[in-house]
């Protein structure tokens, strides 16, 4: 069975085509600048040259049509006909409380995703555009949606509620939802497989640290707490997001600086985090380069980042009354040996012992970076949200037959 996985943003669309007989990627690519003057389609068929095409792509339906043309192209294609695609999986950011797992797309499911536009105004509308575009281009082919929030729906009320007037939850569903759920679920499963232990008996802390960053406490295979909240702003210090702060900062700054809601939102989401403290970059590579060169602002940014990360690991060890496995994943987690080293250095009270040499090795495979004596297994596991979505899509389509 061939499954196409789509991740639609407001002006972009990423895709990966899987052959699910062996879970291999046949092709992947990206359409950027949808709706702008010159859109760019980058298509990479496995084992062949990457191709780039600039054209005018005004909306998502045309974007998917162009992708399908590339997938079936004589020279750059990997399919003889579009009919070979038997299902399409879509990444959707917010599933609210309605979706506790991935779901087959029906008119009701689409209506529910639309009802959640309020909670994810930037992310859920493009997902609907992606689904509509896929239905228009591939009539009769089933679509499945996978939600970033779904894995965290197992959190208990005492964890997901904020201690504010309860009427706000009743009226507006204000609560912790979390994000990166597909990634946290995927890496926690791979960790259990790698260690050859049943996930039901493991306490795992998964650190998904990329541009956006979140931690999840996974106990017995389910999410019991996660650092992102109503939106992805809560929790860790990130590339451009502040993470946790006293909510009064928001009202105080709005008052003193005469900022509007959208301006303060933009400040906290786009102009904070590593970028704000370093004054130079939101990219961890630049921050660690600056830290190594002894630059004071980058050093402070690095130290704040690591300190906040470590505090959350401690909090989740407390939440689960222990931790067996710590997993690092995503851009920073998979690539930054120094972030892993400095974080683990201060986790010795948990019995964490890092093997500094193993930590420096680079590979695209799951691997252990703790010593045999370490009481906690520390692993680096490359995340693969697309594969997780493709697996869910295959399972749900097969179950629906
Ligand atoms: P996103 O949250 O956008 O999906 P990624 O998970 O791809 O982000 O992470 C991107 C980030 O990973 C970059 O901004 C950069 O900070 C970090 N990163 C990538 N490679 C390295 C590296 N070799 N060393 C340190 N950080 C890295």
What features would you describe in this structure?
With 401 residues, this protein is of the alpha/beta class. Helices cover 38% and strands 20% of the residues. It has 15 helices and 14 strands. It has helices at 60-71, 107-115, 124-137, 157-160, 167-172, 181-195, 248-257, 261-270, 273-278, 284-292, 296-319, 330-335, 337-345, 356-360, 385-399, and strands at residues 2-8, 13-19, 24-32, 39-45, 51-55, 85-92, 103-104, 143-147, 203-209, 213-219, 222-226, 325-329, 367-368, 377-380. It has an eight-stranded mixed beta sheet with strand order 5-4-3-2-1-6-8-7, sandwiched between helices. Strand 13 (367-368) and strand 14 form a beta hairpin. The longest helix is centred in the C-terminal third of the chain and has 24 residues, at 296-319. It starts with a strand and ends with a helix. It binds adenosine-5'-diphosphate. Homodimer. It is an enzyme of class 2 (transferase). Its EC number is 2.7.2.1.
| N-C termini distance | 14 Å
Low-pLDDT runs of 5+ residues are: none
What pattern of helices and strands is seen along the backbone? Answer: EEEEEHEEHHEHHHEEEHHHHHEHHHEEH
Mean pLDDT: 97
Q: Largest sheet, order of strands side by side?
A: 5-4-3-2-1-6-8-7
The small molecules bound here are:
adenosine-5'-diphosphate
Specify the biggest β-sheet. Answer: 8 strands, mixed
Tell me the overall shape: globular
Strand percentage: 15-25%
Helix count from the secondary structure assignment = 15
Q: List how many beta strands DSSP finds.
A: 14
Helix content: 25-40%
Instruction: Return the structural class.
Output: alpha/beta
Which value, in Å, is the CA radius of gyration? 22 Å
